[in-house]
Amino acid sequence: MSFSWQRNEIMYCGNVHSCxxxxxxxxxxxxHVLPIKAERKISTMYLGVWINQPLLDDFKTEKQKAKKLIKxxxxxxxxxxxxxxxxxxxxxxxxxxEQVYFPEWCDDARxxxxxxxxxxxxxxxxxxxxxxxxxxVPLGYKKSWTEDKHKCAIQRIHKVAVRLADILAxxxxxxxxxxxxEPDCTLETSEQLVEFFIADLQYNQIPSVSQHIGVCFDICHxxxxxxxxxxxxxxxxxxxxxxxxxxVSNALKFLSKDYSYIEPILSRYFTSPxxxxxxxxxxxxxISIADIDExxxxxxxxxxxxxxxxxxxxxxxxISQFLQTTQSEILSVFSSLDLLLIKPDIEVETYTxxxxxxxxxxxxxxxxxxxxxxxxxxxxxxxHLIRDEYAE
Length: 392
Description:
Elements: E1 10-12, H1 22-40, E2 45-50, H2 53-61, H3 63-75, E3 78-84, H4 108-123, E4 128-136, H5 147-171, E5 174-180, H6 190-200, H7 207-212, E6 213-218, H8 219-224, H9 229-238, E7 243-248, E8 250-255, H10 259-266, E9 278-282, E10 285-289, H11 296-300, E11 305-312, E12 324-325, H12 327-334, E13 345-348, H13 353-356, H14 365-382
Parallel strand pairs: 1-13, 2-3, 3-4, 4-5, 5-6, 6-7, 7-13
Antiparallel strand pairs: 8-11, 8-12, 9-10, 9-11
Helix pairs in contact: 1-3, 1-14, 4-5
């Protein structure tokens, strides 16, 4: 199947902005979204928004500010097309690490948060598209996962699917909950996700599941896992699994023998707020490191190439002479999109600007985001994926 996008459908992920209040979201739109929209010269703009638990709670109490926000969005033709519900709580803390995976899908809190987001969509439907994707954590963190947690997660996901089916029938709003694979999570590979969908969720046997559950394919994550895009998409297609969202992101890669040249760069990230899972390709398979630290040099002796979970700018093919990126995997996705069963939402997800480069100017964040979007549009245009270069 052949898909194409208009320019206003190309989004960036709102989790780059720290936002836990309605007032903060209003400021985010005024300071970032509207200037970016103006620079892109589009009359309408689709948004990828991160609504965390504190922000969702604030909407309930700050009703007047919420009305102000909705009015602002309506006046400027801003339409929410996808929600990032992976980080449920604070994502810009001094230390985030594995806490980003909690609550897990075995926890009622994760299910209720997701259902409340769906309810929020129905209440504020004037600023939402009719087809919406919600990306979420891939069950939980593998290190803490158990069989009992697995069974609980299946039950909760089925409940959410039933509720989303009810919303479609009642409001004609089609919401798809998309599980985002990530290194060292319960679902970190495409094969694991397909097995879970088919064997545990009974994906093709329960209509509410096949209609409202899907995949969020984060390009950086699967590149770190050394997965091959064409094989991934063929696997999804063979099992009738729908990819509802693609997060365009870029990982780091380097040859083990070159580590001494790039160690000064990587060492700056040893104290990063986020986990930077590292996978090393060796003749015996893939070696996993939970996070980059001083022990990396020793582990690298066992392999040939390393890839690091670190969302670097998508328009960068390299960081230094010896430190490259997985940008080529992004281009591979573009050439394989015709394998997908439905047209996915597409958003750039680079949220690490404050730690990528200590010289990065925080006041130039809008410029950085625009540069990435322009690169993405150009790459899609070259692959005949943009319907009209000037379409709005």
